[in-house]
Amino acid sequence: MVYKGACYCKAIKYEIDISSPDEARTSLCHCKNCKVSFGLTTKIPVKAFSYTSESAKPTVHEADNGSGSLLHREFCSKCGTGILEYGAAAANEFRYVMTGTLDDPGSLPPKGEFFCHYREKWMPEVPGIFHKDRLKE
Known about the structure:
Blueprint: E1 2-6, E2 13-17, E3 25-29, H1 32-37, E4 40-45, E5 49-51, E6 59-64, E7 70-75, E8 82-87, E9 94-98, E10 110-114, E11 130-132
Parallel strand pairs: 3-10, 10-11
Antiparallel strand pairs: 1-2, 2-5, 3-4, 4-9, 6-7, 7-8, 8-9
């Protein structure tokens, strides 16, 4: 199954090629880092992600994520849309794609919520999916 996506201005285009939606794990994260950047990502195997041949090259930003781990984010330098991120530890295994950049974000619904302890009081729990209050439970 091929899932396509792009940034807001369509300068960056990509494809996710997975054999089943079960290979993707869309998650809603309530940690401060994710809240600032995007909140909803889809974890996919690194080999499943590719920028299309007509795509512009993304800009890469690297910084400590606050825990001593180097975080890489790729985004469009024209419109600023974040495309994906990955930590140094997952660099050879996974990409966390900003779910909202998929052409059909609803095609890969969330399977879990993380750092629920930090969920905003006004936001309800998503029913029927995995919930983790803190990372070390």
